[in-house]
Amino acid sequence: MKSHPALLMMDLINEIVHPDGKYAGDGYYQQVSERQVLEHAAIALDRARTAGIPVIHVVVGFSGDYAQWPPASPVFAEARADRRLVLGTWATRIHDAVRPLAGEPVVAKHRVSPFYGTPLEEMLHALRVDTLLLTGVTTDLVVLSAAREAHDRDYRVEVLADATATADDALHETALTLLARTATVTTVEQASPWRSASRHASTDRDAGPDQGAVQGMVAQQGAVSNRSR
User: Fold this and answer.
1) At 195, is the secondary structure helix, strand, or coil?
2) Residue 2's pLDDT band (boundaries 50, 70, 90)?
3) Alpha-carbon dihedral of residues 22, 27, 32, 34, nearest 10 degrees?
4) 13, 63, 101, 189: which one has the fewest Cβ atoms less than 10 Å from its Cβ?
């Protein structure tokens, strides 16, 4: 059965994956560097674009007044006091190695999950997507959350393990073990959609997934974000 995949590039933002980011010293930059996550993610990004696979970028952050910040969250506990993850700043800009092209949607989220409080699922429906390719940092948070939620929304899921990382090797491997319960854990090189997608890309474009609807959702989300600042 022919699949309709999309590539999700999640939380590959300067605050987390750049050496000058405020989370760099927590082990994320070292792991991203040692595992060559950005290099592998860039290859996945290029292959998706070449094959005509939709790409959606996801970034985590909060408005300048932290109106969306969850005070009870241990994950985001330091964000407000240390002025981390402010949307519209260098911190939440996607790293230059995997920066979006014009027209590629960028979804802003305020929690771990890329589905929570965002138009992501509506975008996927508009694009007629049934398979998700996941890259991002961190493996144990956004990737694991996305995979489980996508599973429960009846998507097929492939985790591109060499384009993911977290604070240390042990946690990364544990997360991959958990991910294998609800997703296929593979690599950028071995991901299944590249071959079939390249054969069907022109047909899919002619069939016309609703790119206009997706861009409208992004514009609407941006307007809401701006009003909250």
Assistant:
1) helix
2) confident
3) 140
4) 101
